[in-house]
Task: structure prediction
Amino acid sequence: MSSSKFDASERSLGEILREESLYVVPNHQRDFSWSTEQVEEYFTDIDTALSDKEEEYFIGLMVFIIASNKIYEILDGQQRLVTTSIILSTIRNIFHKKGFDRQSIKLDDEYISKMGFDESQKKSKLILNVYNRDIYDKYVIHDEDISILKAELSNLKKNDKNRRLIEAIIYCKEKINEYISTEIDDKKQIKKLTKFLMYLLDNVKIVKFSVTSDANAYTLFETLNDRGLDLTILDLIKNHLYGKAKINDEIDYISNKWTILSTNLNEVNSDDFLKHYWTSRFGLVRKIHIFKHFKKKVNTWTDVKNICGDLIGASDLYSSLKNSDNELWEKYNPDIINHIKALEIMKAKQVYPVILSGYSAFDINEFYKLIKMLETFIVRYQLIGEKRTGFLESACSILAFDIYDKKIMTTEGAFEKIKNLYVKDDEFKQLFINKIENKSDQVRFVLSSLEIEKQKNKKQGVGPENIPLNTLTLEHILPKKPGKDWEKIMLKDPNLLKDMLYNYGNCCLLGGINRTLGNKSFNDKLEVFEKSDLFTTNMLKDYKEWNRDNIINRSTYLANLAVSRWRYP
Result:
């Protein structure tokens, strides 16, 4: 690297913040996004390093563009710097409230903000993006009671851009006060706090990597990504798009679109989304190659506008696959929500490119049929069949591209494209009978679906909306820890527990007050089963004992229901 363009040096956090420099989060950068779990891990890791008397604790690389004299734009490191600043401000406030004003003022002046002519003119050493800036100034640079913070948090929507920031501030206030509460008086509390503070400032180290402002931002990102920096593909794409903007209106356009895209992807893995999106439009691609392909496809401003619009629409759908309550599904058959939930429970990521393509190419009724078919396919091939997901991913990528390219226009056509992977009835039935499944959410899904299948043509009023999965608990009839009442059958069949505990035939659903039967005897459990409104649970009353043969018998019965439930066409 040319030393005139790049500079890298090891620095302590204290040295970084003590400099007469301003660190700025550009408006197009992501908002503060660390969860309280990540903030807790950061604080705990530093405290553990202090307790273990480690001379240094290294927290990685931070990357900056030198925008002008003593002004740095943060490319990578925002979450760590902001969290550090929140911790420092909390310590400052505790110093002040306990009467240690000299320490409070020194900490504030050297590491957090510079005082103007009065308190209202305090200038932060760290400037967040336009969305987080006011909250940071109000609650970090200045101080407010935690009750005010909690009141503000309660008024925010789930995906508000400031929710994570306020949660982090509240967490630090509570955590650090709890941290010193083990000491019996103020002096000892301040001593413990000062020890942590000095370690944070002097012993927590980073590598500060700076590049002059004339370096192309997306080229820098590529270089750093090749060298192992933990940047998402979305970061690379964003910087590439901004590199195509030539005037302020174009920069504003990208900023606005990126805000919508970021909101859509707030609860999902952005790299997974991009892989599935790109596969749905252009064919199967490995994650590490997405950005290379993206740069080739997006060269002109027209390309930028087209891809931004398409990404927003696709990301809205993608996030809805994780949130079945999204209003996007309101225009569809209500039962589509159950199929969407099923795909999520089965972790059926391989079919997501097909869904993204189908949503853009099929009409409402055809898209509903596609989702229903995909559930059937995944149950047979993946959930019960446990067949190779690589084959499925490859087949689905080809199918997705053909749907997007309008070569396939119907669900029937989609099925024809992948029917060689469809598990036929006889094989599916046998696989189901022998299936061992220890993932409780998947077992609940299967048993709930089979209950619906059994009762859908009866008049019990049971249907997809009437079996709320989250209200039912899973019961293993032969319990995980059999008591004395099970000794007789266990002596007859020593391997029964190992072989059959997680077989579908040994599982049933319970609701209401009789949620947990534990290791009670089979006869005691029968008294509960015969009162159940669920047919597949109530049927257990017909068994006189519970052994291997009866588990297989019941599993066979459920397998027949499964063949009927998940069949295409």
About this structure: The mean pLDDT is 88. Residues 95 and 104 are 5 Å apart (CA to CA).
